[in-house]
Automatic annotation (TrEMBL):
InterPro entries: ATPase_NBD, Hsp_70_fam, Quino_amine_DH_bsu, Single_hybrid_motif. The lineage of its organism: Bacteria, Bacillati, Actinomycetota, Actinomycetes, Micromonosporales. This is Hsp70 family protein. Signal peptide: none annotated. GO terms for molecular function: ATP binding; ATP-dependent protein folding chaperone. The keyword Kinase does not apply. Keywords: ATP-binding, Chaperone, Nucleotide-binding. It comes from Rhizocola hellebori. The keyword Chaperone applies. Pfam families: HSP70 (PF00012).
């Protein structure tokens, strides 16, 4: 059912509001605020005004909150409590900065994943570092100016206020371990954005493009209204279907039987008719508890030595025979302008940027970052390789030829060395742990000019050899430009051997499939629109299927929960 939502952007001296119904957004005239804080009496006044315009009660309420409230649970809870007192227990909150970046007049000019510095030059100034995401902008850091700095009003911009603005922007970028060159744009909103000097100073001091939406003082309420419009039919999250059909195991046991021992451990597969456990009766007879059909033991509900009354659920199991009724669900969709790998134990993902700026280890189950390595220097290129002992290392370099090797995940600098000229190619032999690089330099051999390559020991940074000749690439057997031990393959089996996964390609498009290994019955298939290769892997516990594939700009990873 369609709902009417009141959106209120409360300012220190001016409040704006809008009524959202389906795709209609209507401005609501607000009376002047009589104090500097949103209170229950003023909120009720605004709600009454909106009710008069709508000719019916307001269904839901959305409030913008100051950017500084974003990380203060107590202040957010106080606003929610006030809205509940006004009759809106399901009030939704959105920060000023996030709302401003959802303004339709601003967002179309910026792509997803763009990094933005938002400068709100309203009555109270603030700066916010934001990462644009498809669902909703992510607020990374924020600062708010002292009221004394900007209370002079919007007619003039003082030198001290502009100095604070540029200094705040630089500080936030530095604290996030980023460089200003990584910021896609500076966005100006609020009444002060109309004064040309603000944009001129920011562009001159930061060297980044400066964007300003039309009527910048209304950017926050426009964005909040756009956000609220998505909920006019209610925000809904569909229940996740069962990944595998989990079923209880129970047996009609004799009276006062005790579990003697479990013969199939949790996580282990078993065939039809297998003996899963044994029980002992009071008269010392031992019975085998057998499986009705094949499956995988999920959980023991009754411990060894405990009584097992007849019909009690003794364990939980899942059956591979029932997977066709439980379609795998996409759990994560990740992308990076670099590469994805799996750790050797297949419990974590490894994400690294082609720029060498970072290496992140993520949990497969959640996608959360569990470890991160960021070189203290600023490389321009980087690759993760596997050392002979199985440990990961980041090899980074720049266009001048400075190389460095960093241990992952400790971040320890292991070695560094300098090439004689700009590297044209970089390849690593993971077994010998050596690097070879052809450089932009030639030497004379008799009447001829020959290519030059240098080989280093990655463990020590020492030069092993200097090679001169033609078509040197063919001579470097076993050297690769990206790790061959990434953990993905064209076709893979699940850890218990029951499932087989892979992909097929037709006319530049790929389809990922999942088969039951023994019967080759197809259990799942999904299309991937890509001309590149698709490689697959299973997590260590077999609960997740991972598919890695590439576009022109990024390497993508889909994680399916099975």
């Amino acid at each position: 059912m369609t709902q009417s939502i009141l959106v209120v952007d409360f300012g220190n001296y001016e409040t704006t509001a809008a009524l959202v119904t389906e795709d209609q957004i209507q401005a609501i005239a607000c009376p002047p605020a009589w104090n500097s804080h949103l209170d229950i009496h003023y909120l009720r006044t605004v709600v009454d005004a909106a009710t008069t315009v709508a000719h019916s009660p307001i269904d839901r309420l959305s409030l913008t909150i100051p950017t500084s409230f974003g990380r203060d649970p107590a202040k957010r809870e106080a606003v929610v409590a006030m809205a509940a007192e006004a009759g809106f227990a399901d009030v939704e909150l959105i920060s000023d900065s996030v709302a401003a970046m959802l303004d339709p007049h601003t967002r179309p000019e910026l792509p997803d994943d763009a990094l933005v510095l938002l400068c709100d030059l309203g009555v109270t100034w603030s700066t916010t570092l934001i990462r644009l995401q498809p669902e909703q902008p992510l607020q990374l850091a924020e600062e708010t100016a002292a009221e004394s700095l900007t209370r002079a009003g919007l007619d003039i911009l003082t030198d001290s206020a502009l100095r604070w603005l540029t200094a705040s922007c630089r500080a936030m970028v530095a604290r996030a371990n980023l460089h200003l060159s990584e910021v896609d744009a500076v966005v100006l909103v609020g009444g002060g954005a109309r004064l040309p000097i603000a944009g001129q100073v920011l562009h001159a001091e930061l060297g980044r493009p400066v964007l300003q939406p039309a009527d910048p003082e209304f950017a926050v309420v426009r964005g909040a209204a756009s956000w609220a419009a998505q909920a006019t039919n209610g925000r809904a999250i569909k229940a996740t279907p069962a990944a595998w059909r989990v079923e209880p195991l129970s047996w009609p046991t004799p009276d006062r039987a005790r579990v003697l021992r479990w013969l199939v451990a949790e996580g282990q597969p078993y065939p039809h008719g297998a003996c899963l456990a044994q029980v002992r009766t009071p008269d010392d007879r031992v019975y085998d508890l057998t499986a009705l059909r094949e499956g995988i033991m999920v959980e023991h509900r009754v411990r060894s030595g405990d009584y097992l009354p007849s019909g009690t659920i003794a364990a939980m199991a899942r059956s591979a025979m029932l997977i066709s009724n439980d379609r795998p669900t996409k759990h994560l969709a990740l992308q990076v302008s670099g590469e994805w790998m799996l750790t050797a134990d297949r419990r974590n993902l490894v994400e690294y940027a082609d720029s060498g700026a970072y290496v992140r280890m993520r949990a497969i189950s959640s996608g959360a970052v569990v470890e991160e390595v960021c070189p203290v220097t600023t490389p321009q290129h980087g690759r993760v390789f596997v050392r002979p002992g199985g440990q990961l290392a980041l090899v980074s370099w720049d266009d001048v030829g400075h190389f460095a090797v960093w241990e992952v995940p400790s971040g320890r600098l292991m070695s560094q060395f300098q090439a004689s000229a700009t590297p044209l190619s970089v390849r690593v032999h993971e077994g010998d742990w050596r690097l070879v690089s052809e450089v932009d330099r030639k030497v004379s051999v008799g009447r001829y000019r020959r290519d030059v390559a240098t080989m280093w020991d990655l463990g020590t940074g020492a030069v092993v050899d200097e090679i001169v000749g033609d078509d040197l690439g063919r001579r470097f057997t076993g050297f690769v430009d990206r790790s061959a031990q990434h953990g993905f393959a064209a076709e893979v089996r699940s850890p218990d051997g029951r499932l087989r996964a892979g992909s097929t390609r037709v006319d530049g498009h790929a389809a990922v499939w999942l088969h039951q290994a023994d019967t080759d019955e197809e259990l799942f298939r999904t299309d991937v629109a890509t001309a590149g290769q698709v490689r697959s892997a299973f997590s260590a516990d077999g609960h997740y299927l991972l598919n890695r594939w590439s576009t022109a700009q990024t390497t993508r990873l889909d994680v399916w929960k099975i």
